[in-house]
Structures are given as C-alpha cells and as structure tokens.
Amino acid sequence: MSEETQTGKPGRYQRSFGGLIGSMIVLVLVVLGIVAFRGTFRDTPEYQPPDIDYREMVVSIQQLGLEPVYPPRLPDGWSVKDASFDSGNRPAVDMVFTTDDERTAGVHQEDESERALLGTYVGDGVRENGDTLTTPVGTWTGWDDTDTDHAWTTEVGDDTVLVYSSGDPEALRAFVESLTTEPLQP
C-alpha cells in the first residue's frame, strides 16, 4: 500500500475574526431570547413582608423585669421592619421601622456608651445639635450627622436609648415624644 499525500486546503471551515464576532452575536441573541421567553411565562409573586408584633416582644421583655422603651402605637404610614431582643449578658432591644416617606427609623436600647451607639447606628460625622427634649422617658439629647441622619439619646437605668432616622427630623421628634416604658398587658 502506498501512502497518498493530500494537497490543498484542509477540510475545515475558514476561521476569521469576523466569523468569531458573528457567532458571538448569534449566541448572545439566543441567550437573550431564552431569557425573554422564560420571563414571559414566569409569574413572580409580590413579596409581602411578615407582620412583626413588636408589642408582643415588649411584653416578653417586661416580664423578664427589664424596662424597654417603645412606641405605644406607630405613626400613620409607619410599619415594623424588624424587631429583636438579645438576652445575653448585656441585653439589647432593637426595633426598626419604615416611615411614611419610605425611610428607616429605629429604636436601640443597650448597656453601651452613647458614642458607641451613635457611631454604629448614625455614623462617624455625628455631632450634638443643641436640641434637648424632656419626656416621661427622660431628657433626650439631639444629634445630626453630615448625611442628614438625625438621632436622639437618653439614659434609662444603665441603658442608653438611641432613636435614629434618615427621614424628617420633625417626624422623628414627634416619634421620640410618643415613646414610653409603661407596662403592657399580655
């Protein structure tokens, strides 16, 4: 048997940069078509956050003999975003709300320094703004930072209470005026 040598062009297709770009465009169009097709027939449900009963949490904290600061009722248009209680060696109460203008407001109570809480929840550029407010809970000190965040602090027993928001400062002031430590009925 004799070996024959093939001459001429190989049996493969011609490779070029234009062909590469063309095939990439086709591939991208196919992927986009698949994504659009799936999206057309997909029914995405709207997310409804669970109702959080912060008052129930307050009752359980009060039954432990602690004195949490809380709003007896929320302002119109506000909702509870999160509420938690850490019962460790240094108990901490944290309640976060969504305001009527879709901003965040919170109440945090912990045996921690005022400056530490302000740094954590408000920001580094926080400074006392000269406002004070006296309520049945205590005498509050007003704070602002460079990012339009506002806060109020007071002492309740060994705890520092911080109320903060990035929303309307007058709404936050009214919210602070509404806070209480009164016992709730289970």
Automatic annotation (TrEMBL):
Record field: transmembrane: 17-37
Alphabetized Pfam families for the sequence: DUF4245
Keyword Transmembrane helix included in the entry's annotation: yes
Keywords: Membrane, Transmembrane, Transmembrane helix
Protein's recorded name: DUF4245 domain-containing protein
Organism of derivation: Nocardioides soli
